[in-house]
Model the fold of this input.
Amino acid sequence: MKLLFGLVTLSLLSSARVVLEPVKQAHIERTATKGYKATSRADPNHLLELSIAMKIPNEKLLESTLYRVSDPASSQYGQHLTFEETHALIAPEDKSLKVVMDWLQQHNITGIKANPSGSFINAVVTVSQAEKLLDTEYWTHIHEPSGKAVTRVLLNRTGTQHSYGVPPSVAEHVSFVAPTVTFPPSSIMTSGYRKRRAGLKEEPTPLVTPPILWKLYNITGIGKGTSSKISQGVASFLKQYYEYNDLKLFWKKYKMPGTGFSWTDVPKSQKHSPVGTEASLDVQWLSVSGQNINTEHWSTEGEQPGNPENEPFVAFLTKLSTTASPPTTFSISYGDEEDGVTESYAVRCSAEFQAAGVRGITLLAASGDSGVGCAVGKYVPTFPASCPYITGVGGLSGGSPGRSPTGESVAQLSGGGFSNYFARPPYQDSAVAAYTSHSLPDPGQWNHTGAGFPDIAAQALQFDTCTEGFFYPIDGTSCACPAASGVFSRLNQDRQDAGKKGLGWLNPMIYSGAPEQAGSHMFNDVLDGANDHCGAASGFPAATGWDACTGWGSPNYGKLKDYVLSLP
Done:
């Protein structure tokens, strides 16, 4: 993968310091629009868990290996690497680790490998130590809408853009350090969209229930439960918890079996309070499309009493990389505006997505609830859905259960467009070329060479969800992501039952199979509507084949099952 950023020396830092994450004005403005305000210098004794992301020395080999095991046209399709082989592939050189460990030791800081390869180094430090190590200032930032506090680097000091720096000898080996300049998303996508929905001109939609979703996407049968080696996972962040009693009420209402499969919390110490709408939605609806499949709820808080503060998405990625037998499929309803993270951060995280794919892990991420984004200047993509090494899931509404194709329409909220950080991957070339032959929005608003997203889509409005004992209709691509993820959990199990390997990274299979199987409607093509731009459905329009608001459309489980079982 081409590295899209360079190292810059910042004059405000001490001499001979290199900035790993250059902070652009757009990033500062995005942090402000999230609602964060710097209030005071951080307590010098406040604890941080620094994660130092080491550079991957064999980036090109990692990417080529991923394509070999993920492309159905490859003779090595499905031959995923083991846990040990993957870590050997991404391991930094010994000299790189020594440079970083010595640098930490010079500051009386002990670094430890966060995973077997050492691709992340963790160190628990005080704010005072971190400031000296990185030649920067940490401030307490209050998220004004919620009152929550986070400790991050001050981005704008006396009107000047600021970041953090490391010695040049260290910069040669490190991609970024966190937590520093990346701030958590201001709200969970679902709840944020519910507040904005009144401004969108969408027709009321009927309640989505499990029987409707099953019929709409041709989902039949149930998983094998504890007799299967297949599992699925929900990634939750920012103190989002579900309540097991809500889950049981949901299963009871829709006559779903609540036994015969395992349900595991990671970590087991989750307190399930306060109950979050996002987590409730994710676990309940993943259990609908992935019914009776062993499920894990992975919670990464970012901060909890008595523990050092960390960067939650990085903590999730390091936990994933250290787990020898993680879920086969993950639903990730977590996202940020692409310019809400730095390019350095996004590109390095993409290497972790690739490493997961090499192991055969399937990752899907919600495409966001702001359409193309409403900002001055170019459209605003959503990370991580904009990354080509993860499968982005957009939003739909309407449709006729039992019909093929379903006749669904774009949910105006559906995030979609083209990345400003990631170049378009080869597997998208023909699909994007066909799409850009249509009449599209102002060409000055979007990146014509960027990776397109989403890759697929699913229903995203009016999902009946139980939270704290009551049922509410919920909107957002956070509905679509678990709904689609469960379908691919089933497909992974179908391949296992047939003596085949799991699907792993989906995108090469989707982009080669969807046009090849267009006549069978393996995906329900969406032809009606466009996503949102500042309250109007004037973003990217739906079109035949792939488009930048619904991808290839919604999954037809029965047809997909036939197709994936035909693959080697």
Q: What stands out?
A: DSSP finds 16 helices and 27 strands in the chain.
